[in-house]
Amino acid sequence: MINPVDATDWREARRRSAREDILEAAWSLVADEGLTGLSLRDLARRAGITPPTVYAYFESKNAIYDAMFGQAATQFAEAAAQPFDCDDPQEVLVASVHRFFEFCMADPVRYQLLFQRVLPGFEPSADSYTPAVRALGFAREWLALNGVTEARHLDLWTALVIGLVDQQMSNDPGGTRWFGLVEETTSMFLTHCQASRNSRHPAPRPNQTKGLRS
Amino acid sequence: MINPVDATDWREARRRSAREDILEAAWSLVADEGLTGLSLRDLARRAGITPPTVYAYFESKNAIYDAMFGQAATQFAEAAAQPFDCDDPQEVLVASVHRFFEFCMADPVRYQLLFQRVLPGFEPSADSYTPAVRALGFAREWLALNGVTEARHLDLWTALVIGLVDQQMSNDPGGTRWFGLVEETTSMFLTHCQASRNSRHPAPRPNQTKGLRS
DNA sequence: GTCTATAGCTGGATAGAC
DNA sequence: GTCTATCCAGCTATAGAC
After folding, report:
1. How much of chain A, in percent, has pLDDT values that exceed 90?
2. What is the C-alpha separation between B184 and A159, in angstroms, rounded?
3. B interface test, pick of A167, A172, A178 with most B CB neighbours within 10 Å
4. Chain B residues whose beta carbon lies within 8 Å of the beta carbon of residue A160
5. For residue B86, what are the contacts with CB-CB under 8 A and spacing of at least 6?
6. What is this structure's pTM?
7. What residues of chain B lie within 8 A of the CB of A36, using their CB?
8. Which of A86, B91, B97, B206 could make a disulfide contact with A183, Cβ separation 3.0–4.6 Å?
9. Which residues lie closer than 8 Å to B194 by C-beta, 6 or more apart?
10. Residue A14: pLDDT above 60?
11. How far does the CA of residue B164 sit from the closest CA of chain A (Å)?
12. Which of residues 9-68 of A touch strand C (CB under 7 A)?
């Protein structure tokens, strides 16, 4: 009654589910012990299996980190893809930063893994990284809505946002000391970009593509 | 000819010198292996001694990290205390950020140790930390020269500076992509603070009802 | 796929001779 | 103070039975 295709699908689903159980245990473990505190012994105990079984699903400890990075990057992209319930471009921009704060502060370890280089010798694979790149594309979109398209202004914007978040998480975790500066910072930034546009010779061409990596 | 006091001083000097030799080897080691790559075996080998001898000068591995933090903080304070060869307040402010960039990029591991929380469970002792606090006082001074004294503007300033440096070191190490934005950022910031001062009452606190925990 | 058992190594830290 | 020798705990990863 069960044809080979169904059986294969079922096995595949079981395997994915087991992988996700292990990853769930991994997130729970690093939440308690820090990102570098992930050991295969503790992980296996928390997942209700034994250490060798972990190797049936991940070929190494770094592969686990990589899978976690992939999950985090996907969540980042999903959060960025959510629509906003406001129309004003500046409000959208502010809301995007608030959302980024929320995302980072909801899980500091996830933030560390995604945006800081804390694991010695770990580099995410291309597959795990691409969702994060996709998410950064949204920022470019929201800035364009506000007329900001110059490469150096995009760089300035990313520095502003990451600076606010970094200070918030380092010096006032759980508080709102830098979170409360988001509107003011955004206003400052947009005013600056506008002034920069007005004082320059004609507006930049719509199809400029120089130096726009990241 | 040699009185007891001199003999004591000489022994003290020798001991300090040996300590500094070990710390020098430690900096050299973490420069190669990363901050978390400091092992007492490798450290001893590089210092030309054996592991137990390290314990004659440091009571634990964390004590070594703490001494390194103290050195880094002292160097930070010394760099900040250097006078500037310009008088214009805004130029001084720009120069201070350039100097901070220089300090951070000259030794990325030192930057990690001082400004990022990368060592699991390591907290600098009060003695090692105080020089860093002293250095931060200079920033307040330079901002005051520019008429910036409000607490939230100081917070904004630290976020701007750390954001630029962080992006530079994470995404363009060895380059000048964000370093080149320092002047423009400073100008933007000062313009904003001035406008905020000129308007009668200070900018309203942003409403924090976006569902973030407080 | 999951287990028991263990290899093989590295880590921080200590004992005790000299 | 410095050494040799060593302890003990932790780690990643593998072998092989079931």
Report:
1. 83
2. 13
3. A167
4. 159-160, 163
5. B92, B95
6. 0.91
7. 36, 120
8. B206
9. B147
10. yes
11. 5
12. 11, 15, 18, 48-53, 56-57
Residue lying closest to nucleotide D2, CA to C1': B53
pLDDT value, residue B9: 80
pLDDT at B202 exceeding the cut of 70: no
What pLDDT does residue A207 have?
Answer: 45
For A68, counting Cβ atoms within 10 Å of its Cβ (0-12 exposed, 13-18 middle, 19+ buried), the class is buried
**Residue B211 confidence class, pLDDT cut points 50, 70, 90:** very low
Radius of gyration of chain A (CA): 21
What is the spatial distance between Cα A117 and Cα A60, in angstroms, rounded to a whole number?
19
| Residue A194 reports pLDDT greater than 70 | yes
Q: Which two tokens stand for residue B4?
A: 């007891």
Instruction: Compute CA distances B199 → A184, B148, B195, whole Å.
Output: 14, 14, 6
Question: Which residue has tokens 């500066």?
Answer: A181
Q: State the DSSP code for B118.
A: -
C-alpha distances in Å from residue B15, one per residue of A124, B6, B56: 45, 14, 10
Q: Beta-carbon neighbour count of residue A186 at 10 Å?
A: 23
Whether residues B214 and A176 touch (CB distance < 8 A) is answered with: yes
